[in-house]
């Protein structure tokens, strides 16, 4: 399985800790990097403005993503790992950029020349306490306005080694985190076994992607079809973004930090039953997810309309699918429920709504918000956020059969949390459901109630198919 959670929950075994960080000379050279015309993506700009707005928080407000794996050898070649780390950073141009806010308020990208990038190993000695490692990772990985907001490390033992990558969310999404682990493994293997087959495809430029995205969205106006559809959906929801159906007890006088909960949703046999139930009604697994979410809300708050959001990858080419970056957009899934409680009927509506939402992928919601006039009747404030449900079928990822063997992990820091974010991941042997939510007593109770009800709806649908 793959472990999901917060960095606080990562429990690496004791060993010799080595980290790879930017050399002082490299950091100094990076500060001199010239402005590059490629803008941040819409997702990056919103993220950076939020990070800047909350820079005075007493904790790291921005997201830190940690990817971990175990390899069955204690004989690590550190020179080979150094070469692999630097080859990885050269392969993906997002890691050679940093941002600052210009005098006119725009966010400028700076591009560090490839020759100026140099990560070096630092011997940190033996560590016996997992908390020491967790603190080290978070303290040595800078925030999103520093170029070197990513670090690497290993914890060596006699018969195994933990490998990790810690990177600010600015440079990665969920698929990018998988790619990072895969790329590093292949690059290291190539260093120690020169005759190993080359399994890496050419990677696209993330800077080119950002440029194309902005060129397209700059042509949009309030009358553009995609913009009009977004506004229609919002007005159909009383002018508001979707909201979690239960109270979260969020305080407005302090930051709400993150809490986490992961459960097993299905074993693979039950997941297959659920998928067959969906397909019998012209839908896919993802349609079933939103049907279950809609029926859960109907039970909890007697709603007759479902409006949710889902992040999807915007990688459109083979080269982009080999590229690390933040290739994500947020899409709507909205449909009427009426009074029906029939999963078979709702799943068809949910699948149709999801497919309609995919048509809005080129219309960045961040751009839609930018276009709204100051006197808009829609309730969209700076720093807006909303709940989301993400679905990933990890069985489609190259090398997924090694996830269990490598004891892979994906962790996030306890950043600020205002919403309920749900990730449903279908793995080879099980489907898991992970939730990040505000760490308040009320939210703990509400999320537990919601997850229990959601699981019951999922299992009811799967069991009826399995009979």
Automatic annotation (TrEMBL):
<dbReference type="InterPro" id="IPR023213">
    <property type="entry name" value="CAT-like_dom_sf"/>
</dbReference>
<protein>
    <submittedName>
        <fullName>Condensation domain-containing protein</fullName>
    </submittedName>
</protein>
<dbReference type="Pfam" id="PF00668">
    <property type="entry name" value="Condensation"/>
</dbReference>
<feature type="domain" description="Condensation">
    <location>
        <begin position="73"/>
        <end position="376"/>
    </location>
</feature>
<dbReference type="InterPro" id="IPR001242">
    <property type="entry name" value="Condensation_dom"/>
</dbReference>
């Amino acid at each position: 399985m793959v472990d999901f959670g917060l960095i606080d929950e990562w429990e690496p075994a004791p060993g010799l800790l080595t980290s790879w960080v930017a050399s002082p000379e490299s950091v100094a050279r990076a500060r001199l990097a010239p402005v590059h015309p490629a803008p941040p993506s819409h997702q990056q700009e919103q993220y950076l403005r939020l990070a800047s707005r909350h820079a005075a928080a007493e904790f790291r407000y921005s997201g830190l993503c940690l990817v971990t794996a175990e390899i069955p050898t204690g004989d690590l070649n550190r020179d080979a790992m150094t070469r692999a780390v630097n080859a990885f950073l050269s392969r993906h141009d997002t890691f050679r950029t940093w941002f600052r806010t210009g005098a006119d308020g725009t966010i400028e990208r700076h591009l560090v020349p490839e020759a100026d990038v140099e990560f070096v190993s630092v011997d940190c000695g033996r560590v016996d306490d997992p908390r020491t490692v967790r603190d080290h990772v978070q303290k040595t990985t800078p925030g999103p306005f520093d170029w070197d907001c990513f670090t690497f490390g290993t914890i060596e033992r006699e018969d195994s080694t933990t490998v990790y990558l810690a990177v600010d969310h600015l440079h990665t999404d969920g698929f990018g985190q998988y790619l990072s682990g895969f790329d590093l493994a292949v690059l290291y293997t190539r260093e120690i076994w020169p005759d190993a087959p080359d399994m890496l495809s050419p990677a696209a430029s993330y800077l080119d992607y950002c440029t194309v995205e902005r060129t397209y969205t700059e042509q949009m106006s309030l009358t553009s079809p995609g913009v009009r559809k977004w506004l229609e959906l919002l007005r159909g929801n009383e002018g508001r973004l979707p909201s979690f159906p239960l109270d979260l007890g969020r305080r407005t006088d302090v930051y709400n930090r993150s809490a986490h909960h992961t459960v097993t949703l299905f074993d693979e046999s039950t997941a297959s039953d659920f998928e067959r139930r969906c397909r019998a009604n012209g839908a896919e697994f993802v349609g079933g997810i939103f049907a279950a979410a809609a029926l859960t809300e109907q039970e909890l708050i007697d709603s007759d309309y479902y409006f949710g959001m889902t992040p999807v990858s915007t990688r459109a080419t083979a080269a982009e699918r080999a590229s690390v970056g933040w290739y994500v957009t947020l899409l709507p899934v909205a449909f009427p429920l009426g009074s029906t409680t029939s999963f078979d009927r709702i799943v068809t509506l949910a699948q149709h709504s999801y497919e309609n939402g995919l048509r809005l992928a080129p219309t960045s919601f961040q751009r839609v918000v930018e276009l709204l006039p100051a006197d808009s009747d829609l309730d969209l404030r700076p720093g807006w956020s909303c709940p989301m449900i993400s679905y990933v079928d990890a069985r489609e990822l190259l090398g997924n059969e090694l996830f269990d063997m490598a004891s892979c992990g994906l962790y996030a820091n306890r950043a600020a949390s205002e919403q309920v974010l749900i990730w449903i991941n279908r793995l080879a042997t099980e489907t898991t459901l992970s939730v990040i939510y505000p760490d308040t007593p009320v939210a703990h109770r509400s999320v537990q109630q919601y997850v229990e009800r959601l699981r019951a709806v999922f299992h009811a649908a799967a069991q009826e198919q399995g009979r």
